[in-house]
Fold each of these.
Amino acid sequence: MSLVSTGTGPELSAASGTAAIEVSHLTKHFGGRTAVSDLSFTVARGEVFGFLGPNGAGKTTTVRILGTLIAPTAGSATVAGIPVEPASAAQIRQRISIMPESPGLYQRLTVTENLEYFARLYGLPGRDQRIGAALAAVGLGERAHDLAGRLSKGLRQRAALARALLNDPEVMFLDEPTSGLDPVAAHEVHDLIAALRDRGVTVFLTTHRLEEAERLCDRVAIMNTSLRTIGRPEDLRQELFTRSLAITTLAPLAEPDLVFGGLPAVRGWQRGDPAGGQAVYQLSVTDPAQAAPAVTRALVAAGADVLSVGESRHTLEDVYLQLVGDSGEQPR
Amino acid sequence: MRDSMSRVRAVIGKDLAEFRRNRLIVASAAILPVLFLVSPTTSILLVNAHGLASVGRRVDTSLFIPLLIPVFVPALLSSYAVIGERDQGTLEPVLTTPVSRAELLIGKAVAVFLPSVVLAYLMFGVFLAITQFATSPAVAAAVRHAPQLPATLVLIPLLAAWAIWVGLAVSARASDTRVAQQLSILGSLPPVALVALMSLHVISATFGLVAALTGALLAVDCAACLLVARLFDRERLVTGRQH
């Protein structure tokens, strides 16, 4: 058994047809407070799915519902093709794993003892081999016999990740898996998630790190109690922002209206923030690839000293802030 | 069934390992029984000094006090079992595994039961050994032939089981570890109070009454397992709220 390997897992799994996670009109109230409202989405097998939102948006509640820890007030869901309901809860738990934000390790037990305990709770055969493979996958092989309480936060996070790998889950829920990790350790976790995707494991990733979501996730959902948007990061950028060209010239243009106004590919323009005497212009265009040569020719013809012409890139952070920025929660 | 037993054994093994490595628990589990042993042993050893007239009353009291060991020790340990895990963040990962409520609770109950009962019998054995070898033959015979002696031996595991289920029930519902410990000890006392009243001859300890108490405790201990499983609400434990 290899916990992390490369291969064609996702394609094979996707071919089986059933979605890894299907959520339909999921709602959860705690007393008079609505934590999750009318949430519907589907996650394909083998997909790395980012679940983003500010604190209190209902991300953890959603994970707990899908992990059969709490019951929804309304709506339905299936995980690994199994309906999320009390009768099938144990069956679902056997096929998924959840790594909460807090590692939740037994401090007085060694890393191996922690993993041994969970391997036995899952009723896994070949425990020693699985534990060894899980620890190797997260680079903790040499710390296997250290007490969990003596590990740094980053190493505890890795141990928790190893624990989540033990049962070879079909669906893995990772709640802020790189929280508290240094950049090198976070990079290793990213590689591990990418390797899991390669093997066909569906990863449901809740994170505040938007660059992490952008880098790792096939699709992302942004929620704030209810679903705000869902799609590929690239599609979301295009949906929310008009495409534009960023022009930088050595000095301000004398008559920019004359330069840009006559170009059919340019729908409008505005002056950007100047830097060090240079001038910046943002041009709203239909197709940056077609507009860029025409804009460059017009600038040259106008005698402008052109420093750069390029497509403006909106990040996932821009999308996030556009959708939930008003809530006051800032992404990391 | 095999998987279920394996999971119960896993919980027992993990909890026992944690107990062994927790100095506070080891100290509590060691000091309390010693305290409960010192008082009755001293009382019996002083019989010779005060004359044999008081031996009956002293034996009655001395055989009651060791029964506090299987109440206080498991009450303290079991009250921490669930809420302690929640406080250190280990409960949620466990609840995401296929372990059932019954498996988890039985495992935790057995993990507390074993050391508590072993400790209680050990301390009681020490008490009996001292009374048999360090006192006059008359005092030793009074202890050996005391009618409460067999009842004490039977009641030790039953009282421990009662204290464990009370402790687990409180631990599954409480929101604070200290409150859980206090409530567990309070909740464990009623059957002990009954035993105390019999030992002190306030209630006549007939064979029938002792048998009835034993039977009632046995029935309650079995029923408590089911009741505590119902009190164990995953959602409440994970979110701190009722659904």
Note: Chain B touches chain A at residues 3, 6-7, 9-11, 13-14, 17-18, 21-22, 88-100, 234-235, 238-239, 241, 243 (CB under 8 Å).
Amino acid sequence: MIESQKDWPLYEIFIRAKSGLDHKHVGSLHATDARMALEHARDLYTRRQEGVSIWAVRSTDIVASDPAESDAFFEPARDKVYRHPTFYDIPDEVKTL
Amino acid sequence: MYTQGLDSLGKDFLRNEAQDSAVLESRFQARVDAEEKIEPKDWMPEAYRRTLVRQISQHAHSEIVGMLPEGNWITRAPSLKRKAILIAKVQDEGGHGAYLYSAAETLGVSRAELVDQLLTGKAKYSSIFNYPTPTWADVGAIGWLVDGAAIMNQIPLCRCSYGPYARAMVRVCKEESFHQRQGYEIMLFLARGTARQRAMAQAALDRWWWPSLMMFGPSDGDSKHSAQSMRWKIKRFSNDELRQKFVDTTVPQADFLGLKVPDPALAWDETTQHFRFGAIDWTEFEQVLAGHGPCNRERLEARRDAHAEGRWVREAASAWAAKQEAAAASRAA
């Protein structure tokens, strides 16, 4: 090792492209603190005005569902097709429905 | 998700099913065949993970080392406009390196490890960045040819089976187009200039043509990892297919500049509707890759110096963060 240094904390970066849109995950970066995370995110992900707002979240603070469990986890919605409008049979003559 | 922090969580939740790795592997291949994306916490064969770590980190290193040949010209760019453009381009390359390191880290390697592999010379990076940039025209030729070849290679990677790599490449490709166009514009300016400027442009094309063709890697028959990478849909086209595509699109661009591609064997083939081109000197490629190119030593030294000179900044930032955290903790107490 040239330098035995631990990586700085990892932050996940979310960008709002313009007001009215959701923040969207764009990637991650390392930073010593929240302010550095925001400044680096600006330099890394908005060099061409791709955003009007940035969220930076410590990766370790994110709770995520597990892909290995996803079959069972998302199973409850699978047999509930009646939650979709296309499930219902309405004659064509009926308008605006 | 781009996070290794989640890995530990995943293991706790994994059921202890004694699943045969062959079953997992065929299920994995079926997902890949169905064009599903593989995400960081999904099961994947170890060899797939290793291949991706190698490829993505080499790609990241190439972006980082790639800042050097052009960075060399920032102080000497011929106008304020060209200087601003070149700074923006070099900054993009650094950004591309950062996107790619992030993508590699989702596979369970640390950034420090990857940087260390580059600085100790253990990791490889693209052979092209070991060539010198003696004139301003080289900056034009790099944008036009080297970034042009990179785009050919990278566009199919936007559809790579590994999600984080594919997403990083979408971002990279959006930015590369500016790189290639600014390079071609430099060449156009020189080609329409004085006799000396035209000669400078021609000399740069002579220097960069063959190394650019080598960027696509060994011929299909000699490429070690190609077949497996194709099966895994990390790779979509063979090295030779992409190289041919590059030649076919680039030769007319050289014609437009009134410059001559330095290959006496170059000829249009009516039957195949492709350009035929001369044999590539693979000994040179092997030599450069093995560390014996014109600038290998200089490039690595420049990276090591930059890393060493930045050390106090990294230490100061860490110390500041620790101090702020301690202050916040004592206020809360």
Note: Chain A touches chain B through 32 residues (CB under 8 Å).
